[in-house]
Design brief:
five-stranded mixed barrel, 422 residues, alpha/beta, five-stranded parallel β-sheet, single chain
Length: 422
Amino acid sequence: MNNNYITVGALTRYIKYKIDNDVNLREVCIKGEISNFKHHTRGHFYFTIKDEESRINAIMFSSSTKNINFNPVDGMKVLVKGRISVFEQTGNYQIYVTEMMEDGIGNLYALYEELKNKLKNEGLFDESKKKQIPKIPNKIGVITAPTGAAIKDIISTINRRYPLCEVILFPSLVQGKEAAGDIVKNIKLADTYNLDTLIVGRGGGSIEDLWAFNEEIVARAIYDASTPIISAVGHEIDFTIADFVADVRAATPTGAAELAVPNKDDLTKLIEQLSIRVSKNINDKIQYNKSYLNRVLDSYILKSPMSIYEIKEEKLSNYIEKGKNIILNLINSNEIKLNSLKESYIFNTPNRIFENKNNRYNNLIDKLSVLNPLNTLKRGYTITKINDNVITNINKIKINDEINVTFENGNVDAKVINVKEN
């Protein structure tokens, strides 16, 4: 049996020694896409350089970063120069970058920006379409990997803050080619559970690790869901398309749980405050009603109820007296009119009035008789007419005119045979 065992540290140091002394690795020039970029407060750059086949960790110390004239970001394609070595603490090999130049934007980042702009123009990010997250939920769904820190953080946070809430896990793939379809399937399934809120997310990672949450089908499934959705993808600096479409975005899974449920301590304080306010309002109401009741009991009406009757009786007596006076005044007025009529000339000498009227009538008859043309006919005069028109002038008659002559006792039709003027 071979007992020449060595430690992990010894093996790592040996590998580091071999790599450090390989002249081909002392200065290498590679190109790739930046991912998972971090700018340390001390000025160092920590990032990953990747392509379609592989990736390598990279570090660029502040002594070299001061020569950079652009801002490195995730998805940017770069050309870097540096040496390959091993970081003994983790055993990972990495490139220590001394020079870096910009080489365009990475394909994933370009796809991300393209889809982001497309969905934004369609209105999927509009704040007016965001649903409100219920303040006091009864049931919350979680779509994430069934193992890992994300689901543990969410459940522990909900149990700590608001243990009355039920949590339903919808286990899902959150990374890889099949992840997007699995997330969509679980969103549709969770939407049938009558949930108050649905949390969709995972822990942080590189842009490719989070890419399932940048897929269009996931974004549209979140937008179409009737359940309010909180996205919890990645850490503070990681934004995905799902974050923009969701009703609320949380920086971390723990943050999502805090947004989804209230704090029981805060609720307890609120209930205590409300209890104090309700008690105060009830006591104030009781005191007010007591005061009002005392005012009623001390009122003049209750202490002297007969005073109301006396006042009304006095008013009624006044009305009766006024009524009597009005009636007496009417009777006296009408009595005076009646007496005046009785003493009038008409009632005292009605025959004389009739005689005067009769004499006047006879005078008018005599006047009419004088003016009556029929009386003239009795004295031998006649009335001559043509077509019922009285002829008063001979010039209005011609020979052969047919005329009508009226006598006192009849009419004669005649024909003019001769006309002579005086």
